[in-house]
Design goal:
46% of the residues lie in helices and 12% in strands. By secondary structure, the protein is an alpha+beta fold.
Length: 128
């Protein structure tokens, strides 16, 4: 009953927003604003611009390979929120992306990505 009600309300809100022509545009980094914008038919709509705060990728060995191969599927923030894993865990995570999620990453780039995430988001494990 609750789920049906929630779905109905969500659909109604979506329909109203779509019908009225509200549009949301990506914001430049670090900005947030609202303003009235003219529509093609002469009416106005409220434009809401939300801030975009994606972390910079720290420098390190393999940064280019990481940015080229990993950020196409998930954000840098997703990786930076992980615990400081040792090398063997990061290596298994990269391998999982290739095996389970079919990430098209060659073996040389995989090694560079592991080096990067260990250097920036991990710890060296003495046991390896």
């Amino acid at each position: 009953m609750r789920i049906t009600w929630l779905v109905s309300i969500s659909f109604a809100v979506f329909t109203v927003v779509a019908f009225l022509g509200f549009r949301f545009a990506p914001a430049p980094i670090g900005t947030m604003s609202t303003s009235l914008q003219p529509r093609a038919d002469g009416a106005e709509f409220q434009r809401i611009v939300l801030p975009h705060d994606e972390p910079e990728l720290p420098p390190g060995p393999g940064r280019t390979e990481f940015a080229t191969n990993c950020i196409i599927c998930h954000s840098a923030r997703y990786v930076s929120m992980q615990p400081l894993f040792p090398r063997k865990v990061w290596k298994a995570e990269v391998q999982k992306m290739v095996d389970a999620f079919k990430a098209p990453i060659n073996e040389q780039d995989q090694a560079q990505i592991v080096n990067y995430v260990v250097a920036v988001f991990g710890v060296e494990d003495e046991r390896k």
